[in-house]
UniProtKB/TrEMBL annotation:
InterPro entries on file: DIOX_N, IPNS-like_FE2OG_OXY, IPNS-like_sf, Oxoglu/Fe-dep_dioxygenase_dom, Plant_2OG-oxidoreductases
Organism expressing this protein natively: Corchorus capsularis (Jute)
The keyword Iron is assigned to this record: yes
Assigned keywords, A-Z: Dioxygenase, Flavonoid biosynthesis, Iron, Metal-binding, Oxidoreductase, Vitamin C
The protein, known as: Oxoglutarate/iron-dependent dioxygenase
Amino acid sequence: MVTSVAPSPRVESLSSSGIQSIPKEYIRPQEELTSIGNVFEEEKKEEGPQVPTIDLKEIESEDPEVREKCRQELKKAAMDWGVMHVVNHGISDELIQRVKKAGQKFCELPIEEKEKYANDQASGKIQGYGSKLANNASGQLEWEDYFFHLIFPEDKRDLSIWPKIPRDYTEVTSEYARELRGLASKILSALSICLGLEEGRLEKEVGGMEELLLQMKINYYPKCPQPELALGVEAHTDVSALTFILHNMVPGLQLFYEGKWVTAKCVPNSIIMHIGDTIEILSNGKYKSILHRGLVNKEKVRISWAVFCEPPKEKIILKPLPELVSETEPPLFPPRTFDQHIQHKLFRKTQDGLSN
Ligand SMILES: [Fe+2]
């Protein structure tokens, strides 16, 4: 007998259908529900630890003292939180507004139009428009649809699958990718120097200009009739080296810091930057890859633009750099390719899923 699995509907179509209660696949397990609150209330909370804001204005200052102070602040945030709002990052606000406008226009197209760009995860075509497929026995789904594509290096892009509407999508997204690639280099240099490494070391270890891949995921979180029961993105750490995130100023991101979920504030003209697992491994755990998740709400659509800077899947073996390992600081991570690291995480998750 041939059995076929019906594809999960787009979350946007569920949202606009007027349902009052969400399908069971979107309801989080009981133990998770106790920590999910109203995101607008959560964002207002002023007490307790807050995601740091790092001003990069002086990161390349001519004055060594001024430059060093800026680097030390970046280092502290990378070691303590592994996530931060970066301001004065050097990418113009005008370009960022254009990127957001173009992505938003695509997201606002009718679903039938976006389906023309649908990915096909079963056949390995991962770029394009999609929604999460259940990857474990519990069939758990997330309240979001997305558009995913490689944006840098330019010779590795497949422009044929990029949105053709709006017409300036490719131009503005390409320019943003180039600017972000420059920012990634600047950050990697500073993070290297702060560990006593040569300036270009981390950049080289993650693949350099030719091999480090920038993958953009535009996350579209429709309004959710029961936001207290769902998550836009379940708790995870990023596998990337670095991740850069823009959003439409609707809160949603939460970070698991000192045993509690902390809601990131919406900081004007900032880019959220995560240290991912790749840098955590290379730095032997000195820089942190923090656990995070995304909440949804019933009042406003949230859109975020995440760019994952990732090493090549097979070409590089990731392991703690020998300079950062000693008898008193043994390696905390075994050598693995990036792909092996991803598979290891999936395996661990499946195990957890089965034991629930
Ligand atoms: Fe993430």
